[in-house]
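Subject: for your reference before the review

Hello V.,

The reviewers asked for a structural picture of the protein, and I figured it would be easier to keep everything in one thread rather than splitting it across files. Below is the amino acid sequence we used in the manuscript, unchanged from the supplementary table.
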Amino acid sequence: MSPLGAPSFARQIRSLLWILPAGLLAQPGEPMKRVQLPDLKPVALKPYAALEIPAHLEPSGLVKSRLWPDVFWAHNDSGDGPRIFPVHRDGRIYPAERYGAAHGVHIPDAVNVDWEDITTDDAGHLIIGDFGNSDKNDRRDLCLYYIFEPHPSVGQTSVVRKVFFAYPDQTEWPSPVRNFDAEALFFAHGHVYILTKHRSDTGTTLYRLDATEPHRINLLTKLDRFDTRGQVTGADASPDGRRLALLTYTGVWVFDAKEKEKWFDGTVRWLPTEDDEAEGIALDGDTLVISADEGDGDLYELPIQRLAVVRE
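And here is what came back from the structure prediction:
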């Protein structure tokens, strides 16, 4: 028993692991799916605009609204408070009616421990990933905040649901296998998916959130692994769930699935990039919108057709 008389967090997780197939648990040297990459020179992306102050303090997440035309939702990392910013595609912030543009939309009942990405679902929610987990992978309060997507001018909103989760293959905190940080999530096929940022190898692991029960730890479902040749810092999916875009410190990937959830088995596009500070990516039709550069908040646009097809 812990000093407070409750089972330790590690014991709680281990007690749940017995119901999982052994193949879902991480094993040293576990294989990842890979594709052969051509020898391409990294491309230097040129910014077309910048996020307006203060949305560019430490830009981390970006997603296109499904409700409001020409609205993208952006947020900062842990260096900012619990707020999101409705921005035009050119980075200008929609002003809050009472507070002005610099205010953003505050969420007073949320906490920005380490917000890393944002997505939107089919039910009118924005979902914020508070799951940054440092290089120690020692957080035990990883969570998602669900809010009803607000009108860009409201200035303040509240949390609808807070969902805690854990990785089914993590049994130690801190973890000697440093693959339980995440900076990317997306919504598709009625579910939220999370992609991890690895420090123990060059890939990412894809997980699905199947349960959203409050006041408990919801174990993710482990689905797949892919060698991205770099740490994943952002993700987005098309509204139909067929296309998945991933951003890493070294390049951009686009996957077109031929079967449901089989993104890593379908058509793969890739482009190496020089910008090593890019963290937010959003699909806008056949164009990718990317946010990067702490302190500048530069915005880049990248037509998907510019990426090389590395597997049909």
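For the response letter, the relevant points are probably these. Residues 9-17 form the longest helix (9 residues). The two ends are 54 Å apart (CA to CA).

Happy to draft the paragraph if you're swamped.

O.
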